[in-house]
Amino acid sequence: MAASVAPVHDASELESAVAVLARNGGLVVMPDSFALARRAILKATDLCASNPERAARFIVSRGYSGQLDYAVQAIREIPYMRWRDYDPEDTVRFYALRLREVGMTKNNAKKIIAQGTDWRFFNEIKRELKT
Question: Could you report the per-residue pLDDT of 68-112, keeping only the tens digit for each?
Fold first, then answer.
């Protein structure tokens, strides 16, 4: 399989692209699909937090778990809503500092955050899913 690339007009668009490796090493880049996948993952996370019984029934119906009560308990114990509390910029800052400490980047954390992040989608989905 040869590499398939969705239309990407600018290298900066690759920041929000998803790369999927095929079995033979081909690369598929699909920015729109990645945005949809991110939204679906965050919506599913909110569903698990707001309705753990429904999520557990789904897990059992798909055969991922054999017992509903264990599935409900597991979903209730996982802190699904924490993604709303964390500041992603702090996370990027933390890892940028660690990468600089070990010499993997020469850029400082401020420059990495300024040039390599775009929180618009994250803020938009937070507002959309506000409960």
Answer: 999 999 999 998 888 778 888 898 999 999 999 999 999 999 999
Q: For residues 96 and 113, is the Cβ–Cβ distance under 8 A?
A: yes
Q: Do residues 76 and 70 make contact, with C-beta atoms less than 8 angstroms apart?
A: no
Radius of gyration (C-alpha) of the chain in whole angstroms: 19
Q: Which of 102, 117, 125 is nearest to 35 (CA)?
A: 125
Q: Which amino acid is at 111?
A: K
Distance CA 60, CA 71 (A): 7
- What SS3 state is found at 19? strand
Other beta carbons less than 10 A from residue 131's beta carbon? 7
| CA 107 from centroid of its chain's CA atoms | 24
Residue 15 burial (CB count, 10 A): 12
